[in-house]
Write a structure and sequence with these properties.
heterodimer, A: 297 residues, MetI-like fold, B: 355 residues, alpha+beta, Rossmann fold, OB fold (Dihydrolipoamide Acetyltransferase, E2P), 2 domains, eleven-stranded antiparallel beta sheet, six-stranded mixed beta sheet, 10 helices
């Protein structure tokens, strides 16, 4: 609402209305595609064949299939494991820890660490996938430099420990974001408050638990929201690294959806997977936002 | 008995030397103020006493025991910060009781101790509030409560009044003095405000460039400043200082080309004097030359109601005079400033007081 005190806003209403037209068009476009996906998820639309031209309405069949067939639930589990370890424990946890350590570190060490983790962030996903492939394959760096000289047999880590490699590579890739966010957040914490806790006799762990974490609660919750949403729908790095394999070990929801929609060609079922993903991420978001609200109250 | 002794303390930050060789003794129960312009090292000294900064060299003794490497808690020291540094996410009760909780005290012990402190500081009705729901004065009381709840031997204050408005500052100053009188905890208090220092302190250490220029009672600092720095720092408006360029037969010419007439009596001192100081309130405005003094021209008159501050020029020398009686003079008017040589201060060229 524009109140009388916002004279500057009221007087520029016309140019602002004109400037808003592209935004409105985009919003309409978003709504259209979201609506189209929802509609598709209730049909048996496919990529090829008769059903690509004449799909029929199938009601909740696609959604029922999500629950009754193995693939979807298995992917939900894989995605949850992947998100929990790579985003929540890895990116968020390590990012926070690094930010706290680096805050009091010397300039040179700090520059070195920041360069290292930013490099992971800046590398394109496909490049990162090739790097990790070269790192973890049977004639890759880990085998040649560490395992073989120690007398172990070569292991194809991408086969034996696929989910672990994918998780670690995503931590490497994404920690920079959390690190930067928490570094900025730490600057807002008064140094005197931390010193007061020190004077009160709190050791480093107690200062972290009783003072720093409660003070950063809002930023931590916001960051968890971000990284969960991004990681839950993450596709490119995993697809380029393992393609969802071996077998279906690293087949997260986004890859499962892609395969169902474009490899198998069931666009209707793929859309249902997409909608289900959206509901899961939406549910998690509401959970985080609620948590944050309760705690700041 | 000295509860705290600093012996030849030195502080370097990497290659920058902040304090080179500082010694200080604080007596038990005293209210000691460290005062000086910004960058003089007073806060650094306080933080070293607190244990928030390492001491590069020298010894810090508390109750005769070397405390350089002790944790603040083991030193028996607590501190009130400039911003109060209350934990914003905790209630007043939890803020005050946090240190006790860390000590492993039971809930009941904590509640009892917090209630006792809250009673003396009139905070009982605010115990459930968060710091953001308190006024500036209440926050300061919570910060004091947090500092005294563990019954420290020494309590440190780092410019606690500088964030308050003028009216509240005067109120809180009085409250702090009452608090000190009733609890009698040894207090070390840092400020850059000399009025605060003079009104509150039992003893004041005036610091400049990491060194103590004088450590005495407020009375002595005011009446017998040991050097021109202390002379100009203590007192408001600040003391007029005249650099002596030449002195011949009753007449002193200053570095800024003012001429001061002096009687014979002071010539013994004068032969060594490099700086002469006269407080503004000791300068008497006269229309005719008489006795000791100098000629000057009125530049500006500030009327403060109960007193007037007169700014004058003699040669290039700026002079301030203060009068409690109404002053009738015009800007540009030539006047004579008389003073009693017994109330003037003489310093030699090593900037030491001549007496």
């Amino acid at each position: 609402m524009i109140s009388t005190s916002h004279v500057w806003l009221r007087r520029s209403a016309k140019p602002m209305a004109i400037a808003a037209i592209p935004a409105v068009l985009f919003i309409l476009l978003f709504i259209f595609y979201a609506g189209w996906t929802i509609w598709t998820s209730f049909t048996d639309l496919s990529l090829l064949g008769r059903k690509s031209i004449n799909p029929s309405f199938v009601g909740f069949d696609n959604y029922i299939r999500l629950i009754t067939r193995d693939g979807f639930l298995q992917s939900v589990w894989t995605t949850t494991v992947f998100t929990f370890f790579s985003a929540i424990v890895g990116q968020c946890g390590i990012g926070l820890l690094l930010a706290i350590i680096m805050k009091s570190s010397r300039f040179r060490l700090k520059s070195f660490v920041e360069f290292a983790i930013l490099f992971g962030w800046l590398a394109p996903d496909v490049v990162a996938a090739f790097m990790w492939n070269a790192f973890a394959s049977s004639d890759g760096m880990i085998n040649v430099i560490i395992l073989q000289p120690l007398g172990f047999e070569s292991v194809n880590l991408l086969n034996e420990y696929a989910i672990e490699v994918v998780i670690i590579s995503n931590i490497w890739k994404g920690t920079a974001w959390s690190y930067l966010l928490f570094s900025a957040a730490l600057d807002t914490v008064s140094r005197e408050v931390i010193e007061a806790a020190y004077m009160d006799g709190a050791n480093a762990l107690q200062r972290l638990r009783h003072v720093l974490l409660p003070l950063l609660r809002a930023q931590i919750a916001t960051n968890l929201l971000f990284v969960t949403i991004w990681t839950y729908a993450f596709f490119s790095l995993i697809y380029a690294l393992t393609g969802g394999g071996p077998g279906r070990e690293t087949e997260v929801l986004s890859i499962y959806m892609y395969k169902q929609a474009f490899d198998v060609g069931k666009l209707g079922y793929g859309s249902a997977v997409a909608i289900a993903m959206m509901l899961i991420v939406g549910g998690l978001s509401i959970f985080y936002v609620r948590q944050n609200k309760d705690q700041t109250r | 008995m000295a509860i705290l002794e600093a012996k030849h303390i030195r502080k370097d930050y990497n290659t920058i030397n902040v304090i080179s060789d500082l010694s200080l003794e604080v007596q038990e129960g005293d209210f000691t103020v460290l005062v000086g312009p910004s960058g003089c090292g007073k806060s650094t000294l306080l933080r070293m006493i607190a244990g928030l900064e390492d001491i590069t060299a020298g010894d810090l003794l508390i109750d005769g025991r070397r405390a350089n490497d002790l944790h603040p808690r083991e030193r028996g020291i607590s501190m009130v910060f400039q911003s109060y540094a209350l934990y914003p996410h905790m209630s007043v009760h939890d803020n005050i009781g946090f240190g006790l909780k860390l000590e492993g005290k039971t809930k009941q012990q904590i509640t009892e101790a917090v209630r006792e402190v809250a009673d003396t500081l009139q905070l009982t009705e605010y115990l459930d509030r968060k710091p953001s729901q308190l006024s500036g004065g209440q926050r300061q009381r919570v910060a004091i409560g947090r500092a005294i709840v563990r019954k420290p031997r020494i309590i440190l204050f780092d410019e606690p009044l500088s964030n308050l408005d003028a009216k509240l500052r005067v109120e809180m100053r009085m409250e702090l003095m009452k608090f000190h009188r009733s609890h009698n905890i040894t207090t070390i208090y840092v400020t850059h405000d000399q009025v605060e220092a003079i009104t509150m302190a039992d003893r004041i250490a005036v610091l400049e460039k990491g060194d103590i220029r004088q450590y005495d009672t407020p009375r002595i600092l005011f009446d017998k400043p040991a050097n021109p720095f202390v002379a100009s720092f203590i007192g408001s408006p600040q003391m007029n200082l005249f650099g002596v360029s030449s002195a011949t037969d009753h007449l002193v010419t200053t570095d800024e080309n003012a001429e001061i007439r002096l009687p014979d009596a002071s010539m013994a001192l004068l032969s060594d004097a490099a700086v002469i100081g006269v407080r503004p309130e000791h300068l008497k405005l006269k229309t005719e030359a008489a006795g000791t003094g100098l000629n000057a021209t009125v530049d500006l008159v500030e009327n403060l109601g109960d007193e007037s501050v007169i700014h004058l020029l003699a040669g290039d020398q700026r002079i301030t005079a203060r009068s409690h009686e109404p002053v009738e003079c015009e800007i540009g008017q030539s006047v004579f400033l008389g003073f009693d040589t017994n109330r003037a201060h003489f310093f030699d060229d090593m900037k030491e007081r001549l007496d």
